[in-house]
Amino acid sequence: MPPVIKAVDLRKNYGELRAVDGIDFEIERGECFGLLGPNGAGKTTTVKMLTCALPLSGGDITVEGLSVNEDPRGVKYLLGVCPQEINLDPDFSVLKNLIVYSRYFDIPYSEAKKRADGLINRFHLHDKLDRPIEDLSGGLKKRLLMARALINKPKVLVLDEPTTGLDPQSRRQIWEEVRGMKKNGLTTLLTTHYIEEAELLCDRLVIIDSGKIIEHGTPGQLISKHLEGKGNLEDVFLKLTGKNLRDE
């Protein structure tokens, strides 16, 4: 079975800076695939190229066989995107943020309302329906972003640093949602600089630093390969990069 996502020689340059430097990866159907690396490693740039928010400097990414270079509109229809930044519309209520966003996917109002109601209940936002966005906590905003990312019933969910800046309880709530979606077979791409998050959620991952992939595999495979099974993913990352993600 062909991969859901395939990146080949993916590159992004900003002048002399190579933010993403010729990386390759494949994501299989139903798996949670991680991009693990420090801030500035190229994770978010990779996500923005995948989601057609940035043009590529070289290479290609395909989603279900559609190229981001040749059919960006088709790719966007397949994706649900939960960005790192909070980009909810502050002028809209919780419910209206979902309804208005659904229009980008040509979802009829009656169907959009039905989906929005289901997602609001699922993410425990039912008591915030008509509240302005500015009244929501960071954790609630992230939940609403995840709900919005699912309104079009995507083939692939893209989570870019979904728990950055959240308190431990809100972080665990997000993790439980991701684990539930994994059980339901939703293909997920997760970027993170939290070792625990990568170990808990990712079936496979790549370690990325300075725009390059320096290692790939399951968390268990990486620990066995580099530490002979005596250690954890944090120790692997430190050995390969000389960096401690706890300092991020």
Could you please describe the fold and organization of this structure?
The chain has 248 residues and is an alpha/beta fold. It has a single domain (5-247), classed as Rossmann fold, CATH 3.40.50.300. Helices cover 37% and strands 25% of the residues. The chain has nine helices and ten strands. It has helices spanning 43-50, 72-78, 94-102, 109-122, 138-149, 168-183, 195-201, 219-227, 233-241; strands at residues 5-14, 17-27, 32-36, 58-63, 66-67, 79-82, 156-160, 187-192, 204-209, 212-217. Strands 6-7-8-3-9-10 form a six-stranded mixed beta sheet, sandwiched between helices. Strand 4 and strand 5 form a beta hairpin. The termini are far apart. The relative contact order is 0.17. The mean pLDDT is 93.
Please provide a brief summary of the model.
The chain is an alpha/beta fold. The chain is 37% helix and 25% strand. It has helices spanning 43-50, 72-78, 94-102, 109-122, 138-149, 168-183, 195-201, 219-227, 233-241; strands spanning 5-14, 17-27, 32-36, 58-63, 66-67, 79-82, 156-160, 187-192, 204-209, 212-217.
Helix count equals: 9
By CATH, the superfamily comes out as P-loop containing nucleotide triphosphate hydrolases
Beta content: 15-25%
Biggest β-sheet: strands ordered side by side in the sheet:
6-7-8-3-9-10
Q: What do the pLDDT scores average to?
A: 93
> Into how many domains do the coordinates divide?
1
**Biggest pleated sheet:** 6 strands, mixed
- Taken from the alpha-carbon principal axes, the silhouette is globular
Task: Kindly identify the CATH topology.
Answer: Rossmann fold
Approximate helicity band: 25-40%
Q: Please trace the helix and strand order, writing H or E for each element.
A: EEEHEEHEHHHEHEHEEHH
How many β-strand stretches? 10
CATH C-level category = Alpha Beta
Based on helices, strands and strand pairing, what is the structural class? alpha/beta
What is the second-level CATH architecture? 3-Layer(aba) Sandwich
| Residue runs with pLDDT of under 50 for 5 or more positions | none
The N- to C-terminal Cα distance equals: 38 Å
Cα radius of gyration in angstroms: 18 Å
